[in-house]
Amino acid sequence: MLINAVPQWQGATGSRARGLAEGCRALSELAGHVLGKPVHHVRQDFSGSGVVTGIANRAVLTGTNRQLQLAAVEAPEGPVLTIGGDCGVELVPVSVARFRYGATLGVAWFDAHADLNTADSSPSGAFHGMVLRSLLGEGDKEFAASPSIEPGRAALFGARALDPAEEQAVADGLAVRTDDPAGTLTASGADRVYLHVDLDILDPAEFAGVNYPEPGGLTIGELVSAIDALSGMDVVGAGITECVSADVTVLEPVLAAVGRVLMEG
Question: CA torsion sign, 183 to 187 to 190 to 196?
Answer without folding.
Answer: negative
